[in-house]
Amino acid sequence: MTVTSLRDGYVDMPVRRLRQPGDKPFGDNLPSQVPLFDGALRLSVNAFAIDDGQEITLIDTGSSNAWHPTMGFLPQALSEAKIAVDRIRTVAFTHTHLDHINGLILPDGRDGFPQLARLLIPRLELDMFRSEARLSRFHDRAQPLDPGQRLSANIEAVATPGHEIGHTCFRAASGGETVLVWGDIVHVPSLQFDRPEVTWEFDTDQEQARATRLRILALAADNAWCVAGAHLDSPGVGRISRTETGFRFEPL
């Protein structure tokens, strides 16, 4: 099985999106290890293709032209990786935020994945997905995705709520190795591995997001799993180890 990182682009966000415990934004006390670009946080936006040799499962699809012009480059990434879109028959979402779902439709209005047979949405977010007018042609095609559900013999859904009510990770295992495609468990890798208590303004439930992040970081570190993150610096794949006070990300 092959996992390919696909960069949709990046988005710059204000520092106030980072929240300390108690929903307190950072002021002048942002740690020095956090790089800024014109005073903003730069988040990579990544999707991941899992190829079992027969067909490809795509986890998240980027934003197409629905948000910032620095995003929407998934089709170019697929071409660069020599992945034919006709081989992508399953698309599964970690959650339904716009930078993960809008790549179903290309900027010119065509379907991004013309041979799509399964569109899997976390069950708790089906109504949210079906409220997206831009994606109306897919509303009836969406199928609910539940924790523990197997997408294939090698891919299993894992419940990781907090950032969104149905946020889901995907554990892919093959040949004695495991990679956890984990969506938005971490938004700012230069800070949240070392200080996992720091949350994100757009977390639906900050306390739950914090607890989920701590649980998943420990699970990945203690089992030597690779992780693949939507907002880890591209290509966004690596391993996690424990430190005295938190965790460390070691990119591949």
Automatic annotation (TrEMBL):
Keyword Hydrolase: yes
Domain of life: Bacteria
Domain Metallo-beta-lactamase: 44-231
Pfam families, sorted: Lactamase_B
Keywords: Hydrolase, Metal-binding, Zinc
Record InterPro entries: MBL_superfamily_lactonases, Metallo-B-lactamas, RibonucZ/Hydroxyglut_hydro
Family indicated by similarity: Belongs to the metallo-beta-lactamase superfamily.
Protein name: MBL fold metallo-hydrolase
